[in-house]
Design brief:
Layout lengths: L7 H44 L3 H19 L5 H13 L12 E2 L6 E2 L5 H7 L5 H14 L3 H9 L2 H6 L4 H10 L14 E2 L13 H10 L1 H8 L3 E12 L2 E11 L4 E7 L6 H18 L8 E6 L4 H8 L5 E8 L5 H15 L4
Parallel strand pairs: 3-8, 6-7, 7-8
Antiparallel strand pairs: 1-2, 4-5, 5-6
Length: 352
């Protein structure tokens, strides 16, 4: 086939034009669907109020109209879908139907509907109990481009509650309003990390090598748990000092912070020697691996048990950023975490 290099720029421009048009079409269709489903929810609520339905009457109505709509319009109008359309309207009552959904905000809650998210995203989002939690996941889904599956996993693992508990009341509100903004090494750490996707039974004994292998086998999920910006560099990363080899369990590079992130895995509690060892690794990377534009490396030690006092005394005064976080092999109890957040707001005298 003959090549025409002179046309390459033209081909590139045409491709960009078509891809941009396709993207706009998808967004337009998505926006129309969201407006339509919101309007259906509004009609259901209006009928419900007009007829003063109780829960049983509402359920009966939804079953009957689901049958008729499914018969005449096809799939997408099950009773479950209608329930979510109704809830969509109730959670976002200020949506203006005459315009597109983008940047439309509810005056009551401050929640914003975005046509960057699909209806399937909103079905997962509507499972959030508080407006703070809902707002956080909306912002984060857009910022980090989560798929529906990724969003579901983050909600199930109580990401909002886990991050919120490291902040004060005002910090929680800022988190909900803006999502998770990464500006410093403190913003990329969590405590605890939830590794339920490794499928390791809680009472089974396992080695650090086995834990590392499970993480590598589930690397995509592990990076999702780490958060936005992590790029995998390698495992058992060898460094040599004074003719002695040392091996760092996992090495990542953070694209936003522009720094290496070194992760050490421990299947026991933290010891002061672990922090000293990580400090050695960080000093080596800062001197031997960093390029001119790189920021100082960050170390994260994942442990099964964490001694807060030991960590405080061992890390205080160190020039390197070393974080010690627990990991757990099961999903957290969201009710317990929500209760802690409620207590946080009570202690700081900040109303939701």
């Amino acid at each position: 086939m003959t090549s025409f290099p002179a046309y390459s720029n033209l081909v590139t421009r045409i491709k960009e034009l078509v891809l941009q048009a396709r993207s706009r079409i998808v967004k337009t269709i998505n926006a129309e669907l969201l407006v339509t489903y919101w309007t259906i929810g509004k009609l259901i609520v209006e009928k419900e109020k007009q007829s003063r339905f109780d829960d049983l009457s509402l359920r009966k109505m939804l079953i009957e109209i689901s049958r008729e709509l499914s018969r005449d319009l096809g799939k997408g109008f099950s009773r479950s879908q209608l329930v979510y359309m109704r809830l969509f309207y109730l959670r976002f009552p200020g949506l203006t139907v005459s315009n597109q959904t983008k940047k439309k905000q509810s005056p009551r809650t401050g929640l914003t509907v975005s046509d960057q998210l699909s209806w399937s995203h909103y079905i997962e989002l509507l499972k959030c109990e508080s407006d703070l939690e809902l707002s956080f996941y909306i912002k984060s889904s857009i910022r980090e481009n989560w798929s529906v599956r990724e969003l579901r996993r983050q909600i199930d693992s109580a990401l909002f509650e886990r991050i919120a508990l490291s902040k004060d009341g005002k910090g929680v509100k800022a988190l909900a309003q803006k999502g998770r903004i990464i500006e410093s090494p403190y913003d990329i750490t969590r405590d605890p990390y939830v590794l339920e996707f490794l499928n390791i039974p809680v009472h089974i004994r396992y080695s650090e090598k086995a834990l590392e292998q499970r993480i590598i086998d589930n690397l995509q999920n592990f990076i999702l748990e780490l958060g936005n910006g992590f790029a995998f560099i390698g495992r058992q990363y060898r460094i040599t000092i004074d003719n002695t080899h040392y091996y760092i369990d996992l090495v990542f590079y953070h694209r936003i912070l522009k720094c290496f992130v070194l992760i050490d895995l421990k299947v026991r509690g933290i010891k002061h020697a672990d922090i000293g060892q990580m400090n050695l690794y960080l000093n080596y990377f800062a001197t031997e691996q960093n390029q001119a534009n790189d920021n100082p490396p960050v170390g994260i030690i994942l442990v099964k048990r964490k001694g807060e006092i030991l960590v405080e005394y061992t890390t205080t005064g160190l020039p390197n950023k070393i974080f010690v976080s627990k990991y757990q092999l099961y999903l957290p109890d969201k009710k317990v975490l929500r209760k802690k957040i409620e207590e946080l707001f009570e202690d700081t005298k900040i109303k939701r």
